[in-house]
Amino acid sequence: MAKTVQGKPARAGDEIVITGHSVGDSAKTAVILEVLGEPGHERFLVRWEDGHESIFFPGDDALVRRPRRRRASTTAS
Question: Is the pLDDT score of 60 beyond 90?
Fold first, then answer.
């Protein structure tokens, strides 16, 4: 089961990061497009860094994180 964002369930727009399993392996990143399944048994429709989409069943090595929000510009015109 994927680790959630501060105990909150994953949602569309969140990122999944999978750490490398061997020395020299880089992390893999995907964006959640849709949450499928029941709570506790989720799977995700994701888009990977290289653009392909798949249904992903998270393991213990998957970390879910929320993307950072950009602050609105407050400059006057």
Answer: no
